[in-house]
Design a protein that fits this description.
Blueprint (H helix, E strand, L loop, with lengths): L1 H22 L3 E6 L18 H5 L2 E9 L3 E2 L3 E3 L3 E4 L5 E5 L5 E3 L13 E4 L1 E5 L15 E3 L2 E4 L2 E3 L6 E3 L3 E3 L1
Parallel strand pairs: 1-2, 2-5, 3-6, 4-7, 5-8, 6-9, 7-10, 8-11, 9-12, 10-13
Antiparallel strand pairs: 13-14
């Protein structure tokens, strides 16, 4: 009798751990929508609302796709990823902050390429506001390795995109 209870308890523990690790798995493709919620799993049928919410649920070298038009907020990429707004008007409106920050640490074993691909996005700063000459738009995109394709950058401080520490590129 004791052995049977012990075996059942062990089986329950193994099942619990297996389900917990499955729940923490990251998808290779996630989705965002203007009517989504960041508490959702970011699947096509239950999309997230922001790029920041989706990136934490997307695997290294995965892809975040946009289901419908909307503003999906600023995002910090800490792993290789593709963010693609193809087929929808996908935008990032950043007021007083960077719209996209790419900060992938060197030497990460499961992310040797360290690349971020931004496609078909409209990345907008707010332009002039507040006191005379005060710009509160985004301060470009800071990245080490990237790919920009079909994007619109507007209303940003100085230049739209930066590579490395401070070398402007547009």
């Amino acid at each position: 009798m004791f052995q049977r209870i012990t075996a059942n308890a062990f089986a329950l523990c193994v099942l619990t751990l297996a389900l917990a690790s499955a729940a923490q798995a990251q998808a290779t493709r996630t989705w965002v929508s203007g009517v989504g919620d960041d508490a959702f799993p970011c699947s096509r049928t239950a999309p997230c609302k922001t790029f920041a919410g989706a990136i934490s649920k997307t695997a290294v070298n995965g892809e975040i796709n946009v289901l419908d038009p909307g503003g999906f907020g600023a995002v910090t990429a800490v792993k290789s990823i593709t963010i693609d707004g193809y087929g929808a008007h996908a935008s990032i409106l950043a007021s007083g902050t960077n719209g996209v920050v790419v900060n992938i640490a060197a030497g990460v074993a499961n992310d040797p390429h360290r690349s971020v691909r931004l496609r078909n996005l409209s990345i907008n700063g707010t332009g002039l506001s507040g006191g005379a000459g005060t710009r509160t738009g985004l301060d470009g995109i800071r990245f080490l390795i990237n790919s920009l394709s079909g994007n619109t950058l507007s209303g940003n401080n100085t230049n739209g995109a930066f590579t490395g520490a401070a070398v402007p590129k547009v």
